[in-house]
UniProtKB/TrEMBL annotation:
<dbReference type="InterPro" id="IPR013105">
    <property type="entry name" value="TPR_2"/>
</dbReference>
<dbReference type="InterPro" id="IPR011990">
    <property type="entry name" value="TPR-like_helical_dom_sf"/>
</dbReference>
<feature type="repeat" description="TPR">
    <location>
        <begin position="209"/>
        <end position="242"/>
    </location>
</feature>
<feature type="repeat" description="TPR">
    <location>
        <begin position="392"/>
        <end position="425"/>
    </location>
</feature>
<feature type="transmembrane region" description="Helical">
    <location>
        <begin position="31"/>
        <end position="52"/>
    </location>
</feature>
<keyword id="KW-0472">Membrane</keyword>
<dbReference type="Pfam" id="PF14559">
    <property type="entry name" value="TPR_19"/>
</dbReference>
<feature type="repeat" description="TPR">
    <location>
        <begin position="135"/>
        <end position="168"/>
    </location>
</feature>
<keyword id="KW-0812">Transmembrane</keyword>
<dbReference type="InterPro" id="IPR019734">
    <property type="entry name" value="TPR_rpt"/>
</dbReference>
<keyword id="KW-1133">Transmembrane helix</keyword>
<feature type="repeat" description="TPR">
    <location>
        <begin position="355"/>
        <end position="388"/>
    </location>
</feature>
<dbReference type="GO" id="GO:0006493">
    <property type="term" value="P:protein O-linked glycosylation"/>
</dbReference>
<feature type="repeat" description="TPR">
    <location>
        <begin position="581"/>
        <end position="614"/>
    </location>
</feature>
<keyword id="KW-0802">TPR repeat</keyword>
<dbReference type="Pfam" id="PF13176">
    <property type="entry name" value="TPR_7"/>
</dbReference>
<dbReference type="Pfam" id="PF12895">
    <property type="entry name" value="ANAPC3"/>
</dbReference>
Length: 661
């Protein structure tokens, strides 16, 4: 029945059947339902209806196509509209609305992002003065030239329009195109002049608002924050309903952040929050404030901001990762390393290929002495990022982690890799020092000497050289190279390192152990010269020299040195002197040795009073008894001998005291 009806209306114009009536008829016949049921797509159905409209309409065909294309364009169906506009150009090249078709094609390609194609169609209209689309086409063409990077063309076209149509409503927009083209062509001064003219001459236009924003951005990019803030403030104040206020408020806060005026910055960010609660700039603005707080050491404030903006940063976005990093850094700054570690671990769990996180996390593991975890992290880094510019740091820290964990072979291997990756003198010095430390730990003195000598050849600062030479002397001594050690000590003493005192004491002690007492004494005497005003260091040097003289049998010199120390001990500044007890006992022993029993017993009693529970008490009690015996104070001597037997019955001195009794 349907086909018979269609045959009846096969002659065009024979019946006055409208397209609307036809659609109603098709609906009554359930035509659309049948088509869908038969598997025919909705697009095919629409095409059939459009064809039928074209077939039965009395309008010219190009006009029906154009109307349909315009409808699609207005509905935002740009690809379908583009196809129909192109069909019109191909099928109806002589239609009277070709300018409109070309203009709409330019608009369609412009919106689709095909700027060069848009330029092609705009040009077909823009240079026809008789076209009703002439002005709009020229404006859009100038915009497209600028977007396509053809700034000279955009500027030329804009200046032509400014000259020909100075009274046009759109003249401010052409000024803006000209200014933007100059700016993007690196002609900043000329651009600024155009922006300022827009503001002066056309203050009520959108172009004036944009000009304020552009001028602010120019000065912001040049770090001229006060000037930039002036333009942003004008935009905010003079155009309270402008949508550009969103960016202006954000950039104004950036100006104050750059000047570390955080309170002012926050006030404008809160204003931005009030006026544009969904602004895309808000998280970044507060993030910048948090960054400044971190740099200023105000970690609690930085953490508070990061915690507030994190929920609005996107669950796994790049920005969310940056916020989490800052949050972790705020915990680091407060010394809450475990909290920082948890955050870094959570980031790596979701994003396992972020270089910086590995290095930060590994460093925190080192600080927390979790060396096994540090090893795992740094090993992952060198495996995932072998070409990273931070590969040297990764190998160096890996070596340090191995060293502290006691895995020396791993440490040496990692340090050698770090040495291979080192690119500067400073980096080589750092690695050679670590390699020397490992070898000294393993008592590989020959290798340690080799690394330290390489390090000295790279050092420039005298203090650093001397510090390394002290270590080198120790290695020479440990390896039995006494002559070389002596030679290096003489060089060290010529330029004494005040900040390496403890190491120099160690070297002197090693010389003393090696039987080179005079070399040791020369070192101590040099220390005395340098630190003559520091009683603690002076007393320690005197004690060391006195011990050597005591060992050498130079009793009088030793006694003289110990007496100097005892005299200094009366000063409050030496109340915490580490060798106080030994000084008293050693001097007492020397007095006893030369028969000065009164002086000896006085010092023994003082030492016993100061250190009543010391390991040397048995010896002190025994010697006090001996002193009293030599002074013929028998009752006192017996008292101390009996006391010794009661308190220290297992002591060898108790057995001797029994014989004395």
């Amino acid at each position: 029945m349907k086909m018979k009806f269609l045959k009846k209306i096969s002659l065009r114009g024979k019946f006055s059947l409208t397209f609307k009536n036809l659609i109603l008829f098709l609906k009554n016949l359930s035509f659309l339902k049948l088509a869908v049921a038969a598997g025919v797509g909705a697009g095919v159905v629409i095409f059939v209806l459009f064809y039928l409209e074209n077939f039965f309409s009395t309008k010219p065909r190009w006009q029906i196509y154009l109307q349909k294309a315009d409808n699609l364009y207005n509905m935002g169906k740009l690809k379908e509209a583009k196809k129909l506009y192109l069909d019109i150009r191909e099928k109806f090249p002589s239609n009277p609305e070709m300018d409109r078709v070309n203009f709409q094609l330019g608009n369609t390609f412009h919106k689709l992002g095909f700027i060069h194609r848009a330029c092609f169609f705009y040009e077909k209209v823009a240079f026809k003065n008789s076209s009703p689309y002439f002005f709009e086409a020229r404006y859009n063409l100038a915009l497209c030239y600028r977007k396509a990077g053809e700034f000279d063309k955009a500027l030329k076209l804009a200046e032509e329009m400014i000259e020909k149509f100075p009274e046009s409503e759109k003249i401010a927009e052409f000024y803006l195109i000209a200014a933007d083209s100059l700016l993007e062509n690196s002609k900043e001064k000329e651009a600024v002049s155009f922006y300022q003219r827009i503001i002066r001459s056309y203050p009520l236009t959108l172009s004036a608002q944009i000009a304020y924003l552009r001028l602010g951005n120019i000065f912001l990019s040049k770090n001229q924050y006060s000037e930039a803030a002036l333009f942003y403030s004008h935009l905010i104040k003079d155009y309270p309903r402008s949508k550009l206020q969103e960016e202006a408020l954000f950039n104004l806060s950036r100006c104050y952040i750059a000047q570390e005026k955080i309170e002012e910055a926050l006030s404008f960010l809160f204003m931005l929050l009030e006026r544009f609660p969904q602004s895309r700039f808000l998280p970044e603005g507060f993030f910048l404030c948090a960054d400044v707080f971190l740099k200023k050491g105000e970690f609690a404030k930085a953490r508070e901001i990061c915690e507030k903006i994190l929920p609005f940063s996107g669950k796994n976005s790049a920005f969310a990762i940056k916020v989490k990093e800052k949050l972790a850094q705020s915990y680091e700054g407060e010394g809450k390393l475990k909290e920082a570690i948890k955050i870094y671990e959570s980031i790596l769990k979701q994003h396992p290929y972020i270089e910086d996180i590995y290095l930060r996390l590994g460093s925190l593991y080192l600080k927390e002495k979790e060396f096994v975890k540090a090893i795992r992290i740094f090993q992952a880094f060198v495996r995932y990022f072998p070409l990273s510019p931070d590969i040297f740091s990764a190998y160096l820290n890996l070596g340090i982690a191995f060293h502290r964990e006691g895995i020396y072979s791993g440490a040496i291997k990692a340090f050698n890799n770090a040495l291979r990756e080192s690119s500067s003198r400073e980096q080589k010095i750092l690695v050679l020092s670590e390699l020397a430390n490992v070898c000294m730990k393993l008592e590989l003195w020959g290798k340690a000497i080799d690394f330290l000598e390489q390090k000295i050849s790279l050092l420039k600062k005298k203090e650093e050289k001397v510090k390394t030479q002290i270590k080198l002397v120790r290695c020479y001594l440990e390896s039995g190279k006494l002559d070389v050690a002596k030679k290096n000590v003489s060089l060290i003493l010529k330029s004494f390192p005040q900040n390496n005192l403890s190491q120099l004491f160690d070297v002197a002690h090693l010389f003393s152990l090696a039987g080179e007492e005079e070399v040791a004494c020369s070192i101590y005497k040099k220390i005395l010269q340098v630190f003559s005003g520091e009683e603690g260091k002076v007393a320690l040097c005197l004690f060391k020299i006195a011990k050597i003289r005591q060992k050498q049998g130079k009793i009088k010199e030793a006694i003289s040195l110990y007496e100097k120390i005892v005299g200094m001990l009366k000063e409050k500044s030496l109340k915490d002197f580490s060798e106080k007890e030994n000084t008293l006992i050693n001097l007492a022993d020397l007095y006893y040795f030369i028969g000065e029993y009164k002086k000896a017993v006085k010092l023994y009693l003082e030492a016993l009073t100061l250190y009543p529970k010391d390991e040397s008490d048995a010896w002190l009690v025994y010697q006090i008894g001996n002193c009293y015996r030599h002074l013929d104070l028998v009752e006192r001597a017996e008292k101390f001998y009996r006391d010794l037997n009661e308190r220290f019955p297992e002591s060898v001195w108790a057995n001797l005291s029994q014989a004395m009794l």
